[in-house]
Amino acid sequence: MSERVAVLDAKQLKIFTDVVCPFCGTACDDLEIHVEEGGRIKTVKNACALGKATYMHYHEDLATPRIHGQPATLEQCIDAAAEILAAAKYPLIYGLDSTELSAQRKAIELAELIGANIDHTSSV
Amino acid sequence: MQTIGLPTCTVGEIKNRADLVVYWGSNPAEAHPRHPSRYAVTAKGLFTPTGKKGRTIVTIDVRPTASSRMADIAFQIRPNTDYEVATSLTALVNGYELNRTEVGGVPVAEWKVLADKLKSCKFGIICWGMGITMSRGKTMNAIALLKLAQALNRFTKFSGMPMRGHGNVVGIAQVMTWQTGYPFSVNFSRGYPRYNPGEFSVADLVARKEIDAAMIMAADAVGHLPGKTSEHLRSIPLIAIDPKESDTTKVATVVIPVAQAAVAAGGMSYRMDHIPLKMKKVVDSPWPTDREILERIIAKVVAKKDCG
Ligand code: SF4
User: Fold this and answer.
1) ipTM of this complex prediction, to 2 decimal places
2) Residue numbers in A near B283 (CB within 8 A)
3) What is the pLDDT of residues B220-244, one digit of tens each?
4) A51, A90, A100 member nearest B268 (Cβ)
5) Which of A124, B175, B195, B218 sits CB 3.0–4.6 Å from A99 for a disulfide?
6) If DSSP codes are grouped into helix, strand and coil, which group holds residue A66?
7) Which atom of ligand 1 lies at the shortest distance from residue A24's CA?
8) Distance B216 CA to ligand 1 centre (A)
C-alpha cells in the first residue's frame, strides 16, 4: 500500500523488475529496483545484503579520469593508454571479471592486436 | 575440469530435482546468500515439493560455518584433507574397504554412512567452493570431487558444480574459450593463442617481472595479488579501467572511469551454471561502457601501429 502511494507521489520513480544481480554467481534474476528522478537508487527489493549493497553503494567511491595522478580528460586518458599499450613489448591484460561479455570479447581482440598475455582471476 | 569433464546441470535442476546437496568447502550462507533459498535447500520445485524437508543437506568443511548450521549432516575435516576424503569416499562408493579407521579426522564408519546416502539419493549434487580450490591439492581436489560424482553416476544421477563467484568470472572463461580455445592464461606474443598456466598466468608473469606494461580492467589486481607480486605492477606503466576507486586505481599511471556493468551498463553475463543472463542498466553514468573504451583504445592502437 505505502508503495503505491510512493509511486503516485513521485511520478518520476522508475521501477525495474527482473533485474539480474551481478555480485555473486547465484545471479538472482528477480531483483526489483526503484530509481528516483536524477538517478538515485531508492529501493532494492528481493536481493540479499550483498546484492543490495552493490546497488545502494553504487554512487560511492567512483573513479575519475587521471594521468599520473593529475586530472585529465577521458580522451587524453584513452590516448595515453593506447600509447602505453602500443609501445609495450610484453604487456598484460588482466581482470575482466566484473564486466559483460562484449567488453570481454573486445579485451581479447586488443590482446591479440598487441601480442599481450591475457588472464583473469580464475588463474590465481 | 579440462582433464575430466563436468557432470553438470543447471541450478534449476538442483531446485527441481536434487534431494541431496553437498556443500563442500563452500559457505553459501555468506558467499552466495540466496543459493540455498532459491535453488538448493529450502527451494520447492517440481520433484522437490517439500523443500528442505525432502532434501538431505550435507556440509564438509574445515570449520563450522554459517552454512554448516543449516545442514542435516555437517562434517568437520582436518585442513588440507579434501583430496584424501574425496578419494576415500569414491573408494567406498565403488565398494572397497579402507584399511584405516579415520580419514580427515572423521571415523571411516561415518564416511561409509555418507557413501550409502550418496548412492541412494535420486539426484545429488556437490557444490564446491574456494575451500577446495584454495587448499592443498587445488584443482586436483576438484578433479577428485568430479571423479566421486562420476562414480556415483553408476548408481544414481549425480552432478558437480563449482560455486563460482565474483561477478562474471564464468563469462570471461567462456568468452576466452570460444575466442582462443583456452579458458585463461593465454599469450598472444606469437600472434596466435598459446596456453600455459604457470607461465602465462598473472601471478607468475608479475612475479617474474616479465611484463613491461599492464592494463587492469574490472578487477583490483594491486589489491588482490600477493603483496610482493603486486609491487612490480606499481613499477611499470599501469592502466586501470574501473568504475570505482581501488588499490589499483590509486597507483595506476592512467585511470579510466567507466559505467559499471549491470548497474549503469547493460550486457550479458554468465551464471555459475554457464547459463547466460541479460543484465540491465538501471542508472546513467557520465562515463562510457567498458566496451566503448576498449573500442576507442583499439582504434588508437591501430592508428599508432599503422604510422609506426
Ligand atoms: S542477490 Fe545476493 S545471492 Fe543473489 S546474486 Fe546478488 S549477491 Fe548473490
Assistant:
1) 0.91
2) 35, 39, 41, 58
3) 999 888 887 789 999 999 999 999 9
4) A100
5) B218
6) strand
7) 8
8) 25
